[in-house]
Write a structure and sequence with these properties.
This is histidine kinase. It catalyses: ATP + protein L-histidine = ADP + protein N-phospho-L-histidine. Keywords: Kinase, Membrane, Phosphoprotein, Transferase, Transmembrane, Transmembrane helix, Two-component regulatory system. With 456 residues, this protein is an alpha+beta fold. Helix content is 52%, strand content 21%. The protein has 8 helices and 14 strands. The strands form 4 sheets. Strands 4-3-7-6-5 form a 5-stranded antiparallel beta sheet. The chain has a 5-stranded mixed beta sheet with strand order 9-11-12-14-13, with helices on one face. A hairpin with a 2-residue loop joins strand 3 and strand 4. Bound molecules: adenosine-5'-triphosphate and magnesium ion. The site of adenosine-5'-triphosphate (ATP) has 25 residues, from helix 5, helix 7 and helix 8.
């Protein structure tokens, strides 16, 4: 696409961007939760272990005694390979364990469990502390059992889970990106279909677009249709105008010509005769131009909305040739028609107009007492109408340019014409999906015009 880039790509990037954001967010949340779950498990086991030790506390002859139950440490070993430390304090005195374990910032009140993190022998540790009042002699002594464990296991578990979450997030992102591209393409499909429908049309097809479009495209469709409608109207108006103008010009021209011819007969002065002949010639040129303009407008108008009927080409061509027979006879030109029955579908009025222009050229540009040959043949999928004459050929210029509007060739010198004949022929043929091929015959003796029409 041109200009500001592709909507599809932009939509894909936008959706994929949102998916990437969600992926990172979900990874972050899952990692956090995994870490918290691992920490909580460790806390629970530490608390259970400290409680199990605290339960063995008793007082014996005024002294606090305890047994370290094996189970209290084995449960810690079950969750990871981390090192375990403990400490039992009776009041301020160390009963057993590691004196160097850091004190809890928030010591537990009796019957409660308190947790803290700290550092021991250069490693981070998690500690759980339980406090109990034990009667030693007459005084109850607060005994604090602290169990600590390094945190490598927790780190490893949460790193594992975080990695898994990252993998899942990447997979989620890839799926979401593919789906985004798919969604972008699907939602743009109606737009592409409309564009394709418009570009498939012929240059003069201004019918409104009739297709189901999503609600968002309805305004585009209706403004496109309104534009085409306005364009169609303005084209029709200018065609009507040309037709009307040509008609209005031709009538008075005919009067001028008649008057000039009468005057020509009644005078003897050679210079004045010359002048009158020049006037008649100019009138003929103008009249021909007006006629061709009229035909051209009609062709453009009808080509917009071609009515296609089955046509036998040889019937139509012989009909056109018969109409031109008198003109040919004036120059002793023989029209030869070599027919074969080829049927096409098309507008007979337009095709007759095209044939008339090609034959008119062949007769007009050929010298007297020659032949104009017409042949109809067909290939597998095309019908060919080949018109050859024995005139001067198409001249030295580029032949394909002769179909341009008002273009006259080097052979046209001194011959009345407007340069619209081959334009009309080409318009008619292309409206039918065909084409014109212009060529001079070998050795420059005559022109060979081939009209190609698709077979139905
Ligand atoms: N059979 C032909 N032999 C020689 N020259 C031709 C022939 N057909 C066309 N041409 C050349 O091609 C030019 C364009 O032809 P076209 O029919 O478009 O215009 P025109 O004959 O000059 O005018 P008009 O609109 O009156 O037909 C002509 O001016 C002429 O030079
Ligand atoms: Mg012509």
């Amino acid at each position: 696409m041109i200009g500001t880039g592709s909507i599809g790509r932009r939509l894909t990037f936008l959706l994929a961007g949102v998916a990437a954001l969600l992926s990172v967010l979900s990874w972050w949340m899952v990692s956090g939760l995994a870490r918290e779950a691992a920490e909580r498990t460790q806390d629970n086991v530490l608390a259970a272990s400290a409680t199990a030790i605290a339960e063995t506390l008793r007082s014996e002859q005024g002294e606090v005694r305890l047994e370290l139950p094996y189970s209290a440490f084995s449960m810690l070993g079950a969750i990871s390979e981390d090192r375990v430390f403990y400490r039992v304090m009776a009041g301020q005195d160390l009963l057993t364990g590691y004196a160097g374990l850091p004190a809890l910032s928030d010591p537990p009140s009796p019957g409660q469990v308190a947790f803290d993190t700290g550092e021991f022998s250069g490693e981070p540790i998690r500690m759980a502390s339980v406090s109990r009042l034990v009667l030693a002699g007459t005084q109850p002594v607060p005994v604090t059992v602290t169990v600590a464990q390094t945190r490598n296991g927790v780190g490893a578990i949460s790193a594992d889970l975080s990695q898994l979450a990252a993998l899942l997030a990447v997979a989620f992102f890839i799926i979401a990106a593919v789906l985004s591209a798919f969604a972008a393409r699907t939602s743009l499909r109606p737009l592409n279909e409309i564009a394709a429908a418009v570009s498939r049309r012929g240059p003069s097809d201004l019918r409104p677009l009739k297709r189901d479009a999503p609600a968002e495209l309805a305004p585009l469709m209706s403004s496109l249709n309104r534009l085409m409608d306005r364009l169609g109207q303005s084209i029709r108006r200018s065609e009507d105008f040309i037709a009307e103008a040509a008609h209005r010009v031709r009538t008075p021209l005919a009067t001028v010509r008649t008057q000039a011819e009468i005057a020509l007969r009644s005078i003897d002065n050679e210079t004045e005769k010359q002048r009158l002949r020049a006037i008649i010639r100019a009138v003929d040129e103008s009249s021909r131009s007006a006629g061709q303009l009229l035909d051209h407008a009609a062709v453009t108008y009808r080509a917009d909305d071609l009515d296609r009927v089955p046509i036998d080409l040889s019937d139509l061509l012989s009909h056109t040739a018969a109409a031109l027979e008198p003109t040919a006879a004036m120059k002793d030109i023989t029209l030869q028609l070599e027919t074969s029955h080829v049927r096409v579908e098309g507008d007979p009025v337009l095709l007759d107009n095209a044939f008339r222009n090609v034959l008119d050229n062949a007769i007009k540009y050929s010298p007297e007492d020659t032949n104009v040959h017409m042949r109809i043949t067909s290939t597998a999928d095309e019908a060919l109408i080949i018109v050859t004459d024995e005139g001067p050929g198409l001249g030295d210029g580029p032949v394909q340019e002769l179909t341009e509007r008002f273009r006259r060739g080097s052979t046209a010198k001194g011959i009345v014409g407007s340069g619209l004949g081959l334009t009309i022929v080409e318009d008619v043929l292309s409206a039918h999906g065909g084409r014109v091929e212009l060529a001079s015959r070998q050795g420059g003796r005559g022109a060979c015009i081939t009209l190609v029409l698709p077979l139905p």
